Predict the 3D structure of the following.
Amino acid sequence: MSNLKQSIFWVTLYLAVIFVLAQFDYSDSPIIDFAKYFYFLILAAVPATILFPYVSRTGPAVPMILWGAVYLVLLQILDRTDSAPFSTFPIILLEFLLLQLGIWLAYQLAYGMSQAESVMDLMTLSAFPSRTMDINAASKQIKIEITRSRRYHRPMGLIVVQASADENIINTELVSAIKNDMSHRFSFARIGQVIDENIRQTDMVFRERFNRFVILCPETDFQNSQMLAERIAGVIRNKTSVQVSWTVAAFPDDALSFEDLLDVANSKLTHFVMDGKDRDRKIESVDNETDDG
């Protein structure tokens, strides 16, 4: 946590220094004659490096090379004479180095945030242990199951379960952001535990984004997958009081690869959720008309 605090401090200090330089740069007595696009590039590169979720997995070299290349392209295609008429090669070199420094500091902050989230995930998963795996980390197991079903012409069901965002997984706005996030994580882990308790040993459950779980069911056709999904949704409602939406896709009827199965299931789930919202709006409209009458 101390490293995260230091990263926040250094990124804040860096942006403050850049802001001060920008103020002086466009006054009557500029400190250093930096180009306008340099400041705009800083404002784009630093937040993007912090907020892009996969940056912390790539290492600092990737964003540094990417944004360095963007700077060099802008250097070639844009005219500096208007915004920095007195700039020299040392100033251009300083711009490049400051940009690289900002991206490196932003990466350190992104990495620290990623580590903090991993610690919180471990805390929640240890509170509600289950076989639930991250879907991106389980690609090898998924490929094995899909290959086996394809080779031996066996059915396989895929279930997507999504927790409703309208429930108490997310607290009211009066609750602090940290408590809000931890409540979400613990609720998500609890739902994963409930799913794990109600599937077979041969089934696999994965965590996905947007409060979603993906359940892979070998030797299970579409109808049996639907029955399993209905039972899981009912148990989740009874044990956690959380409403969930679910949908099913089946191999080989709906698709022949895991990615395509997931796309089919997610598409069905999206239409299901939107239809549910339309129904809710119609019901609310009818109720209002009744009250008016």
User: Anything to note?
Assistant: The radius of gyration is 26 Å. The first helix runs from residue 2 to 25. The first strand starts at residue 133 and ends at 134.
